[in-house]
Amino acid sequence: MHDIRLLRDQLDVLREGMRRRGKLNELGDLLDRAESLEQARRSAITELESKQARRNKVTQEVAQRRKAGEDATALIAEGRSIGEQITALEQRRNEADAAVQAMLFELPNITLPEVPEGDETHNRVVSSWGTPREDGASLVPHWDKGAQLGVLDLPRGAKISGSGFIVYRGAGARLVRSLMNMMLDIHTTEHGYEECWVPLVVNRASMTGTGQLPKFEEDMYGLQEEGMYLIPTAEVPVTNLYRDEILEPTDLPRGFCAFSACFRREAGAAGKDTRGLLRVHEFDKVEIVRYATPENSREQLELLTRHAETILERLELPYRRLLLAAGDTGFSSAMTYDLEVFAPAVGKWLEVSSCSVFSDFQARRANIRYRPAAGEKPRFVHTLNGSALAFSRIIASIIEHHQQPDGSVRIPEALQPYFGRAVLA
Q: Does residue 37 surpass a pLDDT of 80?
């Protein structure tokens, strides 16, 4: 959520931020209404202050007349009338406040200056690692190879739950467990993250804090009677660990990692990239989250992204880093790097991580603050998060990129101690 002072004093900054995202036509009317409401709120406050001053004066005059034994009937009637007017003005002010706050929840974050303008066609590859295989036509797609090896059972996943749900079997289940342990071990022992095991169900305040609600409610799996939601990512519970709390300066920067299942109602248009593990409704992921000060959050984004890239390098998967353009940057994000791996049999780059800095956008919604120094006024932290990594597409890429001529799949060396053998056959 934005600082309301932007709306009150720097509306042009908000308009420019929406323009860079390509959202000005969509959100321009909302900004106009918000500006009008803000003017009405200010007018109500000015009038309210005038009425309150007059009521105070009338109250004093009534007291003086009563003390002097004089008739104060007219002043008392005026005081009652002013009181009714004040009540109406307070209601007008409160309604305008509530409406403006609701509108602020609908406005995406302002992207950082280095984020390119435009839609996804303006995304920019900023770095790459490794060499993608060029013999994709000779490889078996992961959904067929996974079935041949007995590690993926997509038909039974669909039977049990519906399309977009996966059953991993035998060595496939072990592969999921191995990836979880490897990623968590690297992040906790090498990268310094505190491991958390978090709930998969959160309340509305938590989803609002990280920006999923109210705008994206239709994309969430909700438990309506309980007012709870299945998490779309561990970002939600982990970021909300310190909601409504004030941290000390020595607490920052601070990192957390968590494994969780993730649930997303939208999993792509019917028939588009839906085969195998490319787009699913439930998947497993290790998430990394960081709290930072405004002064070092941009630096922390580079650090967090490198932590995610390290996992890809250990898995020996060629990848590229994309800087997303403003129009392709997520609602809450100020800047995002996507990490993509190449699935040679599918012939596509697959996003396996989005690493983002949110400035104070999430922290304002969740009221996460820190005190820069003793006696100083608390400030909002800057939050960051990234997938490190999402399993389903990683598994698809391992099956395809490490596929061998004899039909087996080589297990990356760093993963072998966790998996227990060198090949999947």
A: yes
